[in-house]
Amino acid sequence: MPVIRNLSRAVSQLLQNPACGCGVSIVPVRCIGISPRQVASDASFHSVSFSESDHPRVLITGGLGQLGVGLAKLLRKRFGKNNVILSDIRKPADHVFHSGPFIYSDILDYKNLREIVVNNRITWLFHYSALLSAVGEANVPLARAVNITGLHNVLDIAAEHNLRLFVPSTIGAFGPTSPRDPTPDLCIQRPRTIYGVSKVHAELMGEYYHYRYGLDFRCLRYPGIISADSQPGGGTTDYAVQIFHDAIKTGKFECNLKPDTRLPMMYIDDCLKATLEVMEAPAEALSMRTYNISAMSFTPEELAQEVQKHVPELQVTYNVDAVRQAIADSWPMNFDDSNARRDWGWKPDYDLPELVSTMFSFLGSDSRIAQAN
pTM for the full model? Predict the structure, then answer.
């Protein structure tokens, strides 16, 4: 069983001795916890009825990101509202707070996280806390702390308390030397961002904990995820969301990738469905711990042509961003997800035409779309 560590004490010791023999400087990370009395109060608030006790007790870390709120909604519908606890270090919106149990959880505070797992009798943990690629490159020490130290805390707690643990990976876990078309589950991975490096680390550590300690670790490599209820944030695949907003608002879209840049993509409902399916799959059905999943692959040009079926007058121009293009050129063009389809029956519901129609229906129609239809 892994050695249980007092992270706050360890961080304090490291800060007092910045050299620490590891060849890197240590940047202070603020770990804000809550008292055992507060945790006990939360545990009482989150108590469940006997009729719900046969379902998993779920904790989602980093739950206020793109996927956490949607995943909580899906899991609460399946397992009961009070059996799924959403957590983050940020203040939730009112509608999120009132939709089901929410608790403060800092993954860098080992003791706090462990108390939450124990007091709420958690059995499944979805670990979504991470600094993504652009933010991570701007603050590598913080990304290293959150994405790697935070992961180690989660792995130790999950192994100690026999949790079923899900950690998402990413298209960014591959690099320019990986086979791109298609990219298999097992191949060379040499990413060039701290986010990608930390995800490869998570895949390997999860697999190691599975074989060394028997941890039920499960992981999916997500392609680019497209969602109508999240705003594009400037990421490499965010053009595939931005085009819908611009088509509705202005009828003009400027793409920062080349028109023939092919990347694997997925609608968010398929992503959440795959996540639940792999967690519910019998352990004996899984031949590996980390799987590719895919739904479609398209280029900006192909997406624009499909969008123009709904907004014929949409004007598309290209102003290539060299940094984003270099990242895209190092990523897979197509995911080989044949193992997921064979082992646990993965099959997406959304292809490109269905994706485009669904995005417009959620974002709302205007006169151009109504006229086109």
Answer: 0.82
